[in-house]
Amino acid sequence: MTTPLADIPTAPIAGAGGLLKLQLIAPDGARAEIYLHGAQVTSWIPAGGSERLFMSHASQFSEDAPIRGGIPVVFPQFGAMGPLPLHGLARLMRWKFAGATLEGANAVAAFQLGDTEHSRRLWDYPFFAELTVAVGGSQLAVMLAITNIGSEAFSFTSGLHTYFSIDDIATTAVEGLTGLRYRDAAAGWTDHQETASRLVFQGEVNRIYFAAPDEVRLIEPGRATVIQSTGFPEVVVWNPAAKCATMPDLEPDDYRRFACVEAALIAAPRQLEPGERWQGAQRLSV
Predict the structure, then answer these.
(1) Global confidence as pTM
(2) Pick the catalytic residue: 37, 87, 161, 234?
(3) Between 136 and which of 26, 66, 104, 264 could a Cys-Cys bridge form, CB atoms 3.0 to 4.6 Å apart?
């Protein structure tokens, strides 16, 4: 059942740097925070729990810079794999808040983005993007949909670049990747096969895992986060280790406090014919 949210503020308010953000609160107290800049989820607190997403204290909250942390939306280019700015255009554009509803026990908010004169100078295709965020209980779900509203086909890569807040990278691991082929950017973009039962973080980790399962797990002492995805065939795992010190929007030791496990569409760019729609989703559970 879908009903308008009652007694819960659903108008965007001023956040860091004066950028607008939405505070989405479920009836049980679970909450998420989403900035219109990039439609970026910057906070997720499960009901009765604590913050599960990492945000850098050095992040720039400005219209011409990406927000460092949370869940950046990657579209239409993953990383530097093409001529566009790093991770594409969507995370640097202002999305429209399209409304919030209550669906069962979940608070759900929708955001929309279309091409602009500026975006077409960089990537000359008309598109319509939708991001839906649902929070409630012990779960956060993020769904991204892309529709080709133009007259010619285009292809894209994408991802939900999730930064998880952790206590210590030295005691954190990822399960569910055993046996997968991966490409290791930290080792010169070489290909390998995962033989370990757990991926642990010893130095820089920057890997694309191909043909990934629908579920992987982020493991810490005393707690675990289940990461489920649909429509995203790859999983990216990233932690920059000491390279943190070279990144102006991260503090030198921030790498100890986050691990990125990202639902991604990279290896085979998705082609959309005119009028065709694609969607992918990631569900986080604690």
Answers:
(1) 0.94
(2) 161
(3) 26
